[in-house]
Amino acid sequence: MTHLFKGLTLAAALVLVPGAAVAQGADPDAVIRIGSLYEPQNLDNTAGAGQGINEAFNGNVYEALFQLQDEGEVTEQLVTDYEISEDGLTYTFSLQPDVTFHSGDPLTAEDVVYSIERVTAETSQSSRKSSLATIESVEAIDELTVEVTLSERSISLPYNLSYVWIVNDAAVDITASEDGTGPYRLDDWRRGSSLSLVPYENYWGEAPSNGGVVFNYFTEATALNNALLTGAVDIITSVQSPDSLAQFADNPSFTVTEGASTTKELMAYNDRIEPFNNVKVRQAIARAINDEQLLEAIWGDYGTLIGSFVPPTDPWYVDLTDVNAYDPESARELLAEAGYPDGFSFTLDTPNYDPHPIVAQFIQNELAEVGIDVEINIITANEWYTKIYQAQDFEATLQEHVNHRDIVFYGNPDFYWGYDNPEVIELIASAESSATVEERNEKLRQANIIIAEEAASDWLYLYPQIVVSAANVTGYPINGLNSQFYAYDIVKTN
Amino acid sequence: MTAVAATEPRRMRASLTLSVGIVLVGLHVVVALLTLVWTPYDPAGMAGGRLEGPSLAHWAGTDRLGRDLFTQIMIGSRIALTVGAGAVGIGALIGVTLGILAAFATRFLDDVLAAAFDILIAFPTLLLAMLVVAATDSASLFSAILALGLAISAIVGRLTRILAKRVLEMDYITAARTAGTSWAGIVFIHLLPNIWPTLLVNFALQFGLAVIAEASLSYLGLGAPPPNASWGRLLQEAQGTVYTAPFGAIAPGLALVTLVIGMNMLADGLRDIGDPTRRRSR
Amino acid sequence: MLFILLRLLPGDPASSLISVGADPEQIAAARRQVGSDLPLFEQFIHFLSSLVRLDLGTSFVSRAPVLEEVLTRLTLTIPLTLLSFALAIAVAVPLGIVAAVKADKWYGAAISVVSQLGIAIPVFWVGILLVTLFAVNLRLLPSGGFPPQGWGDPVAALRALTLPIATIAIVMAASLLRYVRSATLDVLGSDYLRTARALGAGFSESLVRHGIRNGAVPVVSILGIELATALLGAVVIERVFALPGLGSMLLLAIEQRDYPNVQGVLFISTLLVLLIGFFADLAQRFIDPRLRDPHGSVQK
Description:
Oligomer: heterotrimer
Number of helices of chain C: 12
Number of strands of chain C: 0
Radius of gyration of chain A: 23 Å
Helix content of chain C: over 70%
């Protein structure tokens, strides 16, 4: 609880910091150098490019009909206005006029149709494909009007459309080049090293307040920190440990901001199989692990405890940290009731990158206390997707889930962790077709409480979202929802 | 005679090198054996607070989970000796056999083996390690040892082949062959005694390199998995905390350096004393 | 052989394309795209036919042509390797000879001790120490990365490579030095050197005339090995310094099971290694005439 409180007040206090000193001495031609650990695999977010492409391109190179702001609300971007039919099944969008793509082509309704169909296409690897499954048809009514017809109500349609890049329908290959409408265009991408963006001279909106952006990519957190420390980059998008923060926090040359995060560290069980199909076993494990001590070990004073999969920034958040809280004594009782008085053993598939191996060792110690024997099996990220995500061949695993608004995974019994509760499935399915936002939020809140009580997984903690910059750099996003990093307001003073 | 005068101090220094080497390696062997029966703290249990500095209770401080680092480093000795001995053992067995075979073989087989050595040397130890992991079904200490052993075998094989060829060109071998000495006789009487000092130096280097290579594999996340407290993994885990707890990133490195130096000095000493050419020179 | 070995690895290249939230249909599409849904022998036939056409294919993940990517990375890896190598030789050969010839003097011994230290330290540790000292504390050189323009900005490129080169050279020189010292000691104890001196030649003169020629043979062979290893062995250094070289391409490709990239890197690096081996052999035969006809020397 102390963590939660501290995290929120800190975020609130620091929201005001960037942007405060914009006025004096800002250099409009300064190129902002951003250090990141997430290089895109290619340049197309429907072709498995990874989270790095959202960071570099969302809102910077590509725009969507709607935009997910850093504070979490969804606003119109390439849409000037839209109408929803009485039954909630037809959306009519009016497009922003005088928008051109970087290739010079004007934006038309046909481009929007093409772009939405690209995401819902069979070969699409977009992470939002399934949430757009209710789209029945997309039609261009005239040059600047698009009509979307749904098979059932979808209250989050504008939100979901914020993930759909509007791409020129004449663009040939966008895995290695781009053709968007954003304030920046791609200048150069040197794989394994850097990606540079320059302002697009004919941008329809307000021009960026800097002279361009270069993303410098690192594979190793220490190298990333050193780059900021030595002035090789101006800003780093995510800090991986509290210990590297020590060198920035007490130094007036740097600004440290802690924003709201959606990255959840969790131990997922295969809920289909013995013994994890037993609610008591899952509750016992949740109670046997001291999350507070774990968070302290990994993040020191940073980070937030969570009692379920929902972070405080989601509208259906409720504080559930007291549900199945740390209590080794009742954990032993629950194990005995479940028929495992002497414990049992299982294999924990652990991704080979930080912090999973150390979290696994902590869990191993904690569960040994209640008689459960954990064997740690280290795997690569690729194996995780193959063995656990696709084949669902595992007992328990560790993973960090980064997505925004992703409680829906518990409403899908075919998801890798196989949580199957008809009540939760019904709540999550009907929430999307709610008539009002309040109704949706209430349904998801109920689902949230049920998964927490049933200990569907063990949610260990919420990562902090920490951005560190040189003190003369301001105007950057601090929450990084959905890994986005809007660069157009960043300014650097001399 | 100046030759004798110059050799005496060298022999003294050689025995000094040898003694230091024996002491350093011996220390690690003793510690490694000790960990089998006793460690200062439970290696897995929390013995103190997070990232404590060195103190009387915790000589090397504690890690992020509050575990005693000195205990981990002691266990690291055992793991390093296992990795080094295992990898060099495998590498020597395969490498020397194939190297000598190549030196004796027909031109075609020799060329094939030489090319195989070259390719295997260029084949990244990294990829080799991953393939071995795949073949043995999960990452373990054994898969790391096997991968390093295979990598070493190519280096040993290449060196053996070249050394053996040089010896086989010598006139006395031709004489021995003419005199009807058997194939095995040439190998064991003439060849091996002539090349083993150089090979031994190489084995010692490979021992150290194997320990270092395991550290590098761990740095890339491909080494012996937890809960094996390999020095490489300790260094890798401590790297993120190097600014707040620098000692955690130094202590395992010091342990590693002392073992590797000890091993090298041991071999150097043996070489300077036991080299038959220099013994003859007295 | 490589093909089979790679397919033994657990994991699926398609897994690098999907993200959490992907449905079975998307997974199937990804597998179709990279061809991992085909039977193994069909994949193998595809592989063979493109190899025959010398077509290294395009990456599963980035969809970029493999050869182009490998060549771009070589513009970093080759200068990095060769410069480190040259620096290591320039340091190791003279110091190694001095350490052997002057083994009884304090500086001869000191060189040996320092070289002991040099080979006992893991290369990433050296890199981290150099970064901490020269980049973080003294701010003399960049801590990592390579300029986006590459060699278009030669000064920045060289500055970016200075610390990595120094790191590799230190470790490489330390191990080379030991071979040079060891080879020199062999020569010093050999019969022909004593014969030469007995015939009245000066010590330095006989060392140079006979010693270097004889001592160089095993050293050249070691040099070949070191150069070949450095080519891909730089991967750890590339990670410490965030350099886009061949090694980091291979590491990423292995992690992602991006087989075209793995095969491409290994194919090109195998070619380079065979080339190095060929030149090392040539150099040895040039230095030591006895090796010129290794199989027929008995009849000579």
